[in-house]
Amino acid sequence: MAKIFQVSARAGMTRVVEPIARSLLRAGVSPNAVTISGTLGVLVGALGFGARGHLVAGALIVTVFALTDLLDGTMARMSGGSTRFGAFLDSSMDRVADSAVFGAVAFYLATEGDRAGLAAALICLAAGGLVSYVKARAEGLGMTCNVGIAERTERLLIVGVGGLLAELLHPVALPIALWLLAAVSLFTVGQRMRHVYRQAQQADVPGGTG
User: Fold this and answer.
1) What are the pLDDT digits (tens) for 51-98?
2) Which of 85, 143, 166, 210 makes an SS bond possible with 174, Cβ 3.0 to 4.6 Å?
3) Residues near 68 by Cβ (< 8 Å), separated by ≥ 6?
4) 4: pLDDT strictly greater than 70
5) Packing angle between helix 2-26 and helix 68-78, nearest 10 degrees?
6) Which of 94, 98, 114, 204 is the catalytic position?
7) Which positions does UniProt annotate for a CDP-1,2-diacyl-sn-glycerol binding (predicted)?
8) Would residue 94 show up in a list of annotated catalytic residues for this protein?
9) Rounded distance between C-alpha atoms, residue 70 and residue 92, angstroms
10) What is the pTM of this model?
11) What is the per-residue pLDDT for 7?
């Protein structure tokens, strides 16, 4: 599901993103500058609006600036490919943005006295980081880990829809979305660990806890 969604979404956005990417490159804007700007925008949407209960505005701002993740990648490709630092910066800023989003949701639910929703948000925060860590660690060991039903795009989509429905229809929509996301995130961690285990077994890689 994750791959189908990402491929179709990226294909649909290509015609919109590429002209913007070309214009920014001609203006001397670097992909790294776009990465940092996008992260700052997500922080404003999450902490400045979402954490204060303005869920629709927060979700819309986060969504718009999260799209820079596609824009900076396109710019890097057009300018000859991503540098190692660019890839490192992009991944690091993704973690900052994700932490801000789920931290803001957790803060908002805490102020509302929704303990169940708060617990779900904290699980999503931890599980989201683990999903990314498992992939990064596997790739650092020379293995692949491009599997899972809840990658970054799906996680942001689920929590964004939950926030919109909570403000437009009923507050319970957000905790429901978070518990759904917590479940699929933990399932994704299991998927990735199983995938890496199979590769390690086939390659006869020694196990360890270090």
Assistant:
1) 999 999 999 999 888 888 888 888 888 888 778 899 899 999 999 999
2) 166
3) 34, 35, 37, 38, 41
4) no
5) 60
6) 94
7) 32-35, 73, 77, 83
8) yes
9) 15
10) 0.84
11) 52
Between residues 109 and 154, the one the model is more confident about = 109
**15-29, 92-106, 119-133, 165-179: which range is least confident on average?**
15-29
Enter the tokens of residue 101. 């989003």
What is the residue type of 37? S
Whose structure tokens read 């590769």? 199
- Report the distance separating Cα 61 and Cα 178, nearest Å: 19
Is the CB of residue 150 less than 8 Å from the CB of residue 188?
A: yes
- Annotated binding-site residues for Mg(2+) read 69, 72, 90, 94
Residues 6+ apart with CB under 8 A from 133: none
Which residues does 116 contact at the CB level (< 8 Å), separation at least 6? 175, 179
Residue of 208 and 116 predicted with greater confidence = 116
Residue 157 CB neighbour total at 10 angstroms = 17
What is the token pair recorded at 20?
Answer: 């913007």
Q: Could you tell me if 127 and 164 are in contact, meaning their C-beta atoms sit under 8 angstroms apart?
A: no
